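Example 3.2
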Amino acid sequence: MEQIEIGKIVSTHGIKGELKLLSDFLYLDKVLQKNFNFYINGLVYKLTSYRLHKQYVLIKLNDYNDINDVLFLVGNKVFVQKSDLHLKNDEYLLDELLGANVYYENKLLGVVEEILKGVTANYLKIKEDTKSYLVPINKTYIRKYTDSLRRLDVQNITELRNL
């Protein structure tokens, strides 16, 4: 089973066993479900509650109710099973786009070279022979991704910035 990193536990919050999860995971709404399985250091933990607080998600796992019960989890990355995400045909993980061929109007534009994470948006850096483009990751620019072909179709190319 393929595991996907969704974030990192950066500290505790309060004394009742809450953990601060720092995450920019695209499908966080899919994993923030009661009893969803989180994997930390190869062990499975059940999400028992969560709430948003500033830039963090405060989570409780396995009904731990004391800070001393969860201190050992601080500093660890949190993973989920990709199959548990139940992604639809038009949904994809950002890391899957790396190395994909990018097409505009059925013409090869280039290859996804890098994913740039910004404060307000994420971008794909597309490398052509002599040029590079930044494509915002949203439905305005990304029309379709076909995983089996590693093909990404983009639109509104006239609005893209040349680097």
